[in-house]
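Run log, item B.
One chain of 89 residues. Sequence copied directly from the ordering sheet:
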Amino acid sequence: MSRTSRFVRSLFLTGALATAAFGTACAHHYYQVYDPYYSDYHVWNHDEVVYYHQWAGEYHRDPNRDFRHLPPGEQKEYWTWRHGHGDHH
């Protein structure tokens, strides 16, 4: 096998591995969250995260804390705020 052929194969393999790594790193893990105060569901995706970070900034909360781990009172604050801001479905 020639050096050029080995180089091309190793370059191709490197590209394939890099693509797989990026695909894993960028995977989105969306889930639905039930809002018991308004009896509806919200898809927790990038858009909801943007709203959550905005709320966290306004209410001086940690924007990196998982919403699902907030105490019920803080979750209620968020849902009340959220239903007054933007499309909530």
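Observations after the first pass:
- The first strand starts at residue 31 and ends at 35.
- The radius of gyration is 21 Å.
Flagged for discussion on Thursday.
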